[in-house]
Design brief:
915 residues, alpha/beta, Arc Repressor Mutant, subunit A, Rossmann fold, five-stranded parallel sheet, disordered C terminus
Amino acid sequence: MSEASANLVYACEQWEIDLGRRELRSRGIPVPFGGRAFEIVKVLVQSATELVTKDHMMERVWPGAIVGEGTLHVHISAVRKALGPDRGLPKTASGRGYRLLGSWTPQQREGTAPPVYSPLTRTSGAPPANNLLPLITRLIGRTAAAQFVRDLVSAYRVVTLTGPGGIGKTSLAIEAVRYLLPDFEDGGWIVELASLSDPGLVPSTVASTLGLKLAGEISADSVARAVGGRHLLLVLDNCEHVIDAVANLAETFTRLCPRTTIVATSREVLRIDGESVYRVPPLDVPAPGQAAPDYILQYSAVELFIARTKALNAGFSPHAEDLASIATICRRLDGIPLAIEFAAARAAVLGVQLVAAGLRDRFALLTAGRRTALPRQRTLRATLDWSHELLPETERWLLRRLAVFPGGFTIDAAVAVMTDTGFDASAVLDGIANLIAKSWVALDKSGAAARWTLLETIRAYALEKLVEHAEAGIAAEHHALYFRDLFTPQARGARSSLSDEDLARHVREIDNVRAALDWSFSSAGDQAIGIDLTVAYAPVWRHLSQMSECSERCERALLSLEPHVTANMPLRMELQINLASAIFITMGSPEQAKALLIEALATADALNDLNAQAGALSMLISIYFSRGEYGRAQIAAERIEQIAHRIGDPIHLRFAYQQMAATLLTRGRSREAQQYLERVLRFSAASGDRRDAIYYNSNDHAADRATLAAALWMQGFTDQALNEARLSLKELQGADHPLLLCRTLYGISRMSKMTGDFATADREIARLIEVAKGSNAHLWETAAHFLKGKLLVERGEFAQGLLVLRDAFETCDRTGWHISYEEYKGALALGLAGIGRLDEALIALDDAMAADRKGAGGRGWYAPELFRIKGEVLLQQAADQLVLAAEDCFTQAAQMVREQGALFGSCGSPSALPV
């Protein structure tokens, strides 16, 4: 730098860029930021208003180094932060570079010269250029984090690494700054503050570490003046218990030591001007439900666990079962490195499985810290005790109450559990803010609304404190009351509307609802709260297709509800309908489901609750279909249509038309079914009433189109049918509701099979089985196996098809459900005939025809196909006396097809299993 440039200052309104002193000043006051960030400002101001490309900027600021754009963005952000309200002065040209706005006037300032740096006086035996101890083991999973911290350190004067105990702040700080030491000509020092009990000793500890010889009282100001303009890096480690003294020292250094950079590690941020905060994240952990070894091994938390276990047990070699348990351990320990190291030490001695099983009492189990570690880092409990003791009593109180939320919390929920404490909303919000700053509470970034959570390990610790203070019962009661009031409609028995936003909020609280219900039905709980909450939340379980849980929760609530109490009638009715729905999907007792619905329908009639009448009837139709009682199904569908016209809104009418179309198809009346389906598709689901959509499953265009395709195919309108089938497949792409998806996949699979598109049928049947298994939707899974067996028979794979069909029939016989009995008995007969077992085939056909007559009250939709198959089987017997009988079967089949107006009598009904 020339002598002239040493005195050059660029001025623009309140700002000055002093190239000699390397300062950015606002109204004469220096604004602290890092040396690399200043280099960026220098390049921009020297280019006036011209565009500086990204490549040119990186070449000027980091000559000869390979630097990514992320590093440049960090430093540009530091410049913007320093400029405060004028952060828009560095203008970004998207994808190209930057220019500095404003009119910057260069001025030669007399008396402006580089500051005179005082020498750093060291005592004898002074430390070398740095005192950073080498890391004994490789730092796992922190490569990206270390690089980001390096970028921050070169962009800001003060960088604080914060996070909960054991997250690895110190190790990350040392790893990051080690590679920056060549940038600091006067070296770098780490100052250990953990052992200090008196905040007043912070300045003297820093002075001692730096080897400064100071006379008189040692203060932050005197230490800073002694350091002066030396170019050094200072790491202040473990600051939380002396945070105010450290903040004062750091602020003094930024003012008096223009070339000193400070890195602090603390569970609480410093809260000073110019500070950049990096919240150290946990290590990456595998997602639940993923068991593939290659998947699990790619996560850093797992890598750390295995590395530390092997270090203590050289023969350790995890197999697949161990890996699944290791993944669970890492998740339950929140990816916190210190906790994982404790667990690995135990696993080296006890084995992985015992450690996984013992995590319920993690604080007793995880005690094997390093002998040389600080006392507060030798056990997991000690690590948290250290921070907990630093909290004021009001924050401890709030923390233990927040532990009652397993699924995170909002400000309203937090206020609710503090109702008896005298905390108002403002005090709770301030307390949460403080706990976040001290790394006890984390912001939940998964949604748009403000929400917070506790890491599982911290929550387990706080729950212990809740029990110790005898507050668990009162906190659980407040928690359960809050969620009951949040989800229960104002008027009992009245269905509330659920917008998409409401539904998302309901789903998000599922873990909190589970905890509230567990407490409500416990010996210490309040069953009335649990009953109300179960009724309110049952539609959400159905929306999520969590039918097993829905069944268990509703049955538990019903058992707790006093019978013959008039006030309980609406609650009992709602519980009965939801329980029957869950029983149906999971293939529980059909007699129980039917009895529940009949009683619920009687209650709905007595209460004149039209919504509940339609809900009960809709489930009865599903049961009638699945038991082959098509005549009863049509009577129920006709009644739903009457109810829908009385209510008069599109959702109910659309649903009623779906039911009528399905029942008409099963009776072989495809033309009338088509008319109803065309009405269905003309309706758009009413916005903002998601509960009725959940309750009636009325919002499923893809399945409706598949059903319409079947009706058109039956009538011989092949081109129209294929077009609707294609549209159905297209609309399927956006489907995400598992039970609605099952219904749609079932319809598409059948339609694809009818049209000879066996590849699509095979693919969608496999998908249906997978979705049904994942939702415990045993009815749909069994229906899928029936489809698969029939498809195999039609492909000529008779033996395999018969095996699949018989397994499905065995499931139906065992559970009492009969899914499209006549159709799949026909497929069984075809398979038997295909391997020459003609007598058994005829027996199967007689069973199917008897079921058809009983269910349809005459001849149903599949009767023509049954007669055609029987004729084919009779002809295969090659007996002259059976030819006439075969011809009679063909004649009857043709007559029935004409009566039904169906040119393709074997197409089937995709809606034979409405949900």
